[in-house]
């Protein structure tokens, strides 16, 4: 954990929200909100080069980091593992070191291995900053931040009375882990987690949460429903019986959503499996904040890049 801060406690990298102190978490959210309200300099990162180093697919995260870096005036370099020397067997560390040697100071890194981004950060030079854009099942800190900003805009900054349910494939979800860390730090009143037993983690991840396998019960009266994608690419065979059964038991449709508070909001990190974990009527309905999450993602990523690099 000390690895992402320097000896004075300042953020050097953003690798995880686990253990990030409340003042630092709040400062990032406040800065992102200020940027949303129009307070940003298009010269903040002038002359600084930022590379999006993605060893796994991405649409939102990669493009919103690129957009964020551009809006701060940085020089932005893209990297696509499938058309790079990764296909010739070059390691992620050699890739990072070579791009670093070109004078790039900021790296936004996504990797399939838990802890891989932290390992790269440990090997990076003293002036280099890394942002974890998702490592395996472990962490996705900027998604956690943008989810908190979205909740804060909808429900206010005091989370102490907030009832939230996180639904679905928590076991494979780095988003859920980062959301859980942030919700705890911000003092969320009640955190419920709901999914089939096979898709809930058996380690200490759900400490302090109310765990349920019955969505109709778990959604009752909540202020926010945070849906997760069924992450079939990370799943061993046989964890779920069928997509139809999953949809019947854990899919969010308008009928189920009516059990939540009347003004409940719905979040999903994307990409969505429409008709599996979420129905069109909810995803595109009046309680959905899904595209607001995406818009907030740019501001959150601007706040993070500015904090680490400006
Ligand atoms: C998530 C991811 O890659 O972890 N997507 C995202 O960054 N918005 C969630 C997912 O893939 O389901």
Description:
- The protein is α/β, with parallel strands linked by helices and 310 residues long.
- The protein has 2 domains: 22-140 and 297-309, 3-Layer(aba) Sandwich (Rossmann fold); 141-293, 3-Layer(aba) Sandwich (Rossmann fold).
- Helix content is 36%, strand content 15%.
- A 5-stranded parallel sheet has the order 7-6-5-8-9.
- Helix 4 (116-123) links the parallel strand 3 and strand 4.
- Helix 1 crosses helix 5, helix 5 (141-155) crosses helix 6 and helix 5 packs across helix 11.
- The longest helix is centred in the last third of the chain and has 20 residues, at 290-309.
- It starts with 21 loop residues before the first helix and ends with a helix.
- Bound molecules: N-carbamoyl-L-aspartate.
- N-carbamoyl-L-aspartate is lined by residues 60-61, 134, 140, 143, 174-175, 229, 231, 269-270.
- The site of N-carbamoyl-L-aspartate (NCD) has 11 residues, from helix 2 and helix 6.
